[in-house]
Amino acid sequence: MPAGLVLALDTATPVATVALVRGDEVLGERLSRASRVLSDADELLVAAGFSPRELAGIVVGTGPGSFTGLRIGLAAVRGLALALGLPVAGVSTLEALAAGVPGALPLVDAQRREVFTLADGEPHALGPADLVVEPGTTYVGDGAVRYRDLLEAAGARVPPDGSDVHLPLARHHARLARAFGPAAAVEPVYVRAPDAMARRPAA
Prior knowledge:
With 203 residues, the chain is α/β, with parallel strands linked by helices. The protein is 30% helix and 24% strand.
């Protein structure tokens, strides 16, 4: 992470997260929705007594998650980075989610009766019944909440509903960020085709 002030955000899940971080210090964090991330960022900067020109870099969640949410977040970050001449780093939404509880496995609700998760370090979309559940393993994310009964029946642990550990908090994105560069080089991770394409009848 570059020395100085960093703005981090993730819009891949229904609850968007935005954080303002300097080194190891979290100066502020907001939970809202994708359409509000720029407003949230501005409010965090004002509350902390900084201007956008004082930012050293931006971190954005790359998914997988909501196709629309990812596009909103990446567009916001690219516009801000271009206007301010800032470097950008992309961080996996799944990795940021897992970082909230060391040793936990992330599950993001992918709709279509699937979850996004990590397998051998790579993102995949799986049906809940296809998950290989190790008894005693902790699962986090809105996918874990949705399929709590199935997971707990297999011996897994799922923290209580409403807990922040089920959100890919932007503070974790800032901590995990490594390679900063041009905003245009940061690409979303979709894993599968958007819902609209999946529903399109074959020609």
